[in-house]
UniProtKB/TrEMBL annotation:
Name assigned to this protein: diguanylate cyclase
The protein's enzyme class: transferase
Residues of the GGDEF domain: 464-594
Superkingdom of the source species: Bacteria
Residues passing through the membrane, by range: 403-424
Cofactor(s) it depends on: Mg(2+)
One family name in Pfam for this protein: GGDEF
Chain segments annotated as coiled-coil in the UniProt record: 373-400
Record field: catalytic activity: 2 GTP = 3',3'-c-di-GMP + 2 diphosphate
PANTHER family in UniProt: DIGUANYLATE CYCLASE DGCM-RELATED, REGULATORY COMPONENTS OF SENSORY TRANSDUCTION SYSTEM
Keyword Transmembrane in annotation: yes
InterPro entries listed in its UniProt record: Diguanylate_Cyclase (IPR050469), GGDEF_dom (IPR000160), Nucleotide_cyclase (IPR029787), Rev_trsase/Diguanyl_cyclase (IPR043128), TPR-like_helical_dom_sf (IPR011990), TPR_rpt (IPR019734)
Amino acid sequence: MASSGPTTSDAVSGRCLIIAILVTLLGVTGTLAAPWARASQGDFEARLNEAAELNITAPWRESQAVLDELRPRLAEATIEQRARFELIEARNLILAGDFEAGLARIDQLLEQPIPTAQVLRARTLGANAAIVSRRYNRGFELLNAALAMPGLEQYEQLASELLSLASYAYALVGQPELGLEYGYRAIDLAREHDTERGLCVVQQRMGFNNKIIGRYEQARHHYESGLEACEDTNDELVSGIIQYSLADLLRLDGDLEGARALFEQALPRMEATGFPNGIAEARLYWARLENELGNDEKVTELVTPALSAFTESQAWDYLAEAHQLLGEVAIRAGRHAEALEHFEARLAANQEFQDLDRNRRLAYLEVEFDTRFKEQEIELLREQTRVAQLEAETQRQNARLRWISVIFGLLLILALALWLARALRERRHFHRLSQTDGLTELYNHTRFFELLEEAAARVRRDGKELSIVLADIDHFKQVNDRFGHLVGDEVLRHTSRVLKEVFGPSALIGRIGGEEFAIALPDAGLSEAAERVEQLRKRLAGADRRRTDPPVTLSFGLARLETGESPEEMRIRADEALYRAKNSGRNRAEFAQST
Ligand SMILES: Nc1nc2c(ncn2[C@@H]2O[C@H](COP(=O)(O)OP(=O)(O)OP(=O)(O)O)[C@@H](O)[C@H]2O)c(=O)[nH]1
């Protein structure tokens, strides 16, 4: 006889409940059991590990007995050990069906400063327990907080358990693809770190995920792999879950005898764990099969004891399905009043389930929305930080550029200043060259007569005197011829120096020809000029003359600027006087004739 049980959605969601509880418990227990190797660190540690191990392999009461024995010694425990103790106990409370107390214990633990691994453990266990007990907001909050923990994958088995929980939770709220994605990550992690227990848990969840989206072949494959891993780790709980889940798959596949054989193994196994929700789920699954086979008595026998467990754990979908089955049995037996009661109970349970399902999706969406919103906020903040960094970098570059420009500008100004100073120096040099005679550094011909003009104008204006002396070295050609031009040059320079010394700074002295000099004496008359000439002759002939110097004499022509006379006219007269001095035997001075 065909079953007309609850909707597929009801059945699927109901199945989740038991699986989730079992897997939660399994996950935490598995993690806690891991530090067996540290038993030698002390009796407390060893007993704590024993309690954790018992949580996997025995009914929860056995591990709780160990915890109760350890409780008086909690004061000597480390923070980490206390956290593990609390987590095992919280898990036991949940296994015993007291979700509220279990979750309160986890919340308390999360408020304390505990190692990161314990935080991850507590969040994973809390998320699972909250989701299983219909506290979806809290469940997804804890799940997302755990998933957001940095460096998650370094926690290996813990991370694998968390990802497998995420896999289950997302499948539960209608996101099976996301669930599969998390599941594959969890499988990879479990394989990578060779954790059989992790593999056992995640394969079971992946079996569930595939089953609810109708991929029975894949579901079966995951369940079978999971069963192998679970048997290896003596995990009675998950082994039992997988067995009755596989049996349900066989039923769906039409292998009813195979399914029954598996149920016969799974139910006693579940009963041995003492976990009421798991036992009730196994009974319901089996009852589906017996309903299909028309074994009404067996259906009643299986389902009736499960009703209270479903009601207590608010597994409304399962409860609805159970009442549906019992209602059908009652109809077939002609007990119509009883059937009506069951169908009414089914309707009520379905109503509860619809509310629950809506709440579940809403909770997921709220947390998901909140998370996405926060992610967007974080992304926005990151973007703002990036922009600020870019701006700061741009400002730094601008400041650098400004400095470079300033330095470059200063260097340019300096180079220009140097170049200008050099140009000015050169200009002054060339200017001086253009006015002086390079050999003697006396005024050259042009400059001398310019200055003479100016001096003449000045003395005329001031009503003072001005005399001029033309001096020409005697027989200079012979000096050159006898001693060479270099000596001749030296004679010219020496003569110039003596001229300057004798006539003093007020006199204008110029070299106006090869060996011919002109001296203008402002404010001086002929007698003073003659006196100086005499001094000069003595100096050249006497004291100043070195023994190696060739004998040098000069002939002089002296003239005084007459009233109304131009400097040129004065010069001509002085020239004539010089000519006379030369002709009169040289080495002498002649006065120019007055006009
Ligand atoms: N070493 C040297 N010789 C110069 C320079 N300028 C002109 N002389 C020489 O001066 C000599 C001038 O010779 P002259 O004009 O014959 O005159 P002098 O030999 O002095 O004879 P008198 O003037 O008649 O006494 C020439 O031999 C020129 O070569 C010069 O700058 N350096």
